[in-house]
Specification:
By secondary structure, the chain is of the alpha/beta class. Helix content is 41%, strand content 16%. Helix 9 packs across helix 15 and helix 13 (342-350) crosses helix 16 (396-413). The longest helix is centred in the last third of the chain and has 18 residues, at 396-413. The chain is globular.
């Protein structure tokens, strides 16, 4: 259990911000960037995350404290990984079917049930704050309750809902019955009405939210751009050093979560179809063990490598070590079509040309406008392979020019230092007291 530490008093003390992350934040790069930006302006910042296996209850990044809270109370058994049925024999018969039906009903009515034990820990242990930045739909309900409590304690208690994805327009929700989704959407709109500000990750999602929600003003866009990165004179070669890939073999990189609907099978087949290339997966997720098995498959040996994730501060140098990156996300939902994940901005910042899904609208538009890659059908390995060839088979001078265009776009138009300014201005307007000293 994380012990509660009383922050400075509202009168005369520094303004306190709590960034709520419904995962272990080990680390969560958007949260870390935002925490550092607030801390640089004098805020006392805590990232309040969920406990994770092997992660410390508390650590620091400069002046930012990261605390991980363990689920508590009656809802703790529903926590992700807790396994409500784990360790019990399978229930059978009519009574068991009724019990399973009742448990399903509880999960629907109390949605999102798997984070309520974490919410309970926050409400018990988290000191009050002036700002609660809620990353995603799993955090905004508790942020609103914490904000009310903070106001009673004399803090500003303002709540910012950061729509990091349009989760109720995603393929994960599409399988649910329509009335259930409609109920969830009604709840989200009620949370939006009670929030003091809404933030999101790109202009296209802001357009969608402005049409769909009762927002008082247009959501503030905070792009997932990376901090300004100055490439070394000698291009990094960290991936070859870690894998032993020979110098003549081109490297295609996938960054991020390793799981379903990421195009990982299609990307592996596409890279295998190239004359001499290897796919390197740099990340974590439920498919990690399966992908490591593929590393040893005779068809893929030397052409497929799965590496653990690296700290966000180190990602640009690793990404610059690749000849191309691939973002083969299928456009199965509005959420996917409008997405601009970290891996996209990380590739841009590192100057690494990329192949993106043809129907992933925002990413494809930037790639084509900046001439820094190619688009393809992410469900078709042959089309992905053809798009990759249009990058890795370019003459050396043209490949260098593509890298230089990506680096220039990142430096001139897409940096975190510029992207965060509208957010900071919005916070200064929302939280009483003006800019922190």
């Amino acid at each position: 259990m994380v012990s509660a530490v009383r922050p400075p008093s509202a009168a005369g003390g520094s303004r306190r911000a709590v960034l709520l992350v419904a995962n272990p934040a080990a680390p969560y790069s958007r949260g870390l960037r935002l925490a550092r930006s607030l801390a640089a302006r004098g805020w006392d910042v805590e990232i309040a995350a969920a406990a994770g296996d092997g992660e410390p209850d508390e650590e620091r990044d400069g002046s930012v404290v990261i605390r991980r809270y363990r689920p508590t109370g009656p809802w703790a058994r529903f926590a992700a990984g807790a396994g409500a049925g784990a360790g019990r024999p399978a229930r059978r018969g009519l009574r068991a079917r009724f019990a399973n039906l009742l448990e399903t009903a509880v999960k629907v009515v109390a949605w999102p049930v798997h984070v309520r034990g974490w919410w309970a820990a926050l409400e018990r242990d988290l000191p009050p704050a002036d700002l609660y930045h809620a990353f995603g739909i799993l955090t905004v309900p508790v942020a609103l309750r914490l904000g009310e409590r903070a106001r009673r304690a004399g803090r500003a208690g303002r709540v910012v809902y950061d729509v990091i994805d349009v989760i109720l327009e995603s393929n994960n929700v599409a399988r649910l019955p329509g009335p259930v989704v409609a109920a969830y959407q009604w709840r989200e709109r009620s949370w939006v009405r009670r929030s003091d500000a809404v933030v999101t990750v790109n202009e296209a999602i802001a357009d969608h939210l402005e049409r769909a929600w009762p927002v008082r003003r247009r959501p503030t866009v905070l792009l997932n751009c990376q901090p300004r990165w100055i490439p070394p004179v000698e291009r990094p070669d960290l991936i070859r050093a870690a894998t032993g890939i020979p110098p003549e073999r081109r490297i295609v990189l996938f960054l991020g979560r390793l799981g379903r609907e990421r195009g990982l099978d299609e990307a592996a087949e596409a890279v295998l179809a190239l004359d001499d290339a290897a796919l390197v997966l740099l990340g974590f997720g439920p498919w990690a063990d399966r992908l490591r098995e593929r590393d040893r498959d005779p068809r893929f040996v030397g052409r497929h490598f799965t590496l653990p994730p690296v700290h966000p501060d180190d990602v640009p140098a690793w990404t610059a070590s690749a000849d191309a990156s691939i973002i083969a996300v299928p456009a199965n939902s509005l959420n996917q079509r409008l997405s601009t994940p970290n891996k996209f901005w990380e590739s841009l910042t590192a100057g690494t040309p990329m192949v993106v899904g043809r129907a992933i609208e925002v990413m494809r538009t930037i790639v084509e406008a900046e001439r820094i890659g190619a688009a393809a059908d992410p469900t078709d390995p042959a089309d992905l392979a053809a798009a990759l060839r249009r990058i890795v088979d370019l003459p050396p001078g043209e490949r260098r020019a593509m890298r230089e265009r990506a680096l220039a776009a990142a430096a001139e138009r897409y940096t975190w230092e510029a992207a965060v300014l509208p957010y900071l201005a919005r916070i200064d307007a929302v939280v009483p007291g003006g800019p922190a000293a």
